[in-house]
Amino acid sequence: LYEGNGAGQRVGAFQPFTDSFTVAKSALFQTANSESLTRTPSGAGNRRTWTFSTWIKLAPTTTSFTIFNGYGSASDTGTLDIFWSSSKIYLRGWSTNYMISDMTFEDESQWGHLVMTLDTTQSTDTNRVKGYWNGVELTWGTASYPAEDAELGINQAVLHSIGAFNNASGFLGAYLAETVFVDGTALTASSFGQTDTSTNRWIPKAVSGLSLGTNGFYLDYSDSSDLGEDQTGSNDFTNNNTVIQS
Predict the structure, then answer these.
(1) Cα(87)–Cα(105) distance, rounded to whole angstroms?
(2) For 5-22, how does the pLDDT look when each residue is reduced to its tens digit (9 = 90+)?
């Protein structure tokens, strides 16, 4: 297929945006209602390697809020928090801000795609933690990389919370869609999204063919009566204070 605009021409097998995978539903987390989704893992899973992916559209009423949290206790160095503060993305352990993005995210009218990965089997600092926004790897203004062999363990935590820190604070003000956690594998953004060749936009693609591992889950928020339903297994979440479908 050849395409031209009067000034230039390109050739390729272009896939129109309208023919791609389309996300039907999302979940709205409202800060004022202290809403969250929570679950307690049945096993430890892989404590050193994981991937978290979600589409997010901001509707913030506070400057700082949690996207995903694994919380054990104040003495649990495996506690981990992926959160948003002053328009930047943070990856935090219990007492350490490991990573702070050096770019800000301020367009609250658009959906964006966030992927965070950990792989402390890697010997090189910069390979242990990676983040992606709309398919582009993030760079970090502040970086204190977890040690090799560290267990920055969402999986070892007692409670997993989507939209809150330990289901008690930092409540999210945002829409989420296609929320996925892969236990035991560090993936890139291309496992969850792709560039539409006609519009050059980063768009979702169907979650398929992924081994999610012991504590992995896939929430597509398709069942309005059970927004915490895991679509690929039995790692369902409890809906606290009525997260609603959108």
Answers:
(1) 5
(2) 677 777 766 655 555 688
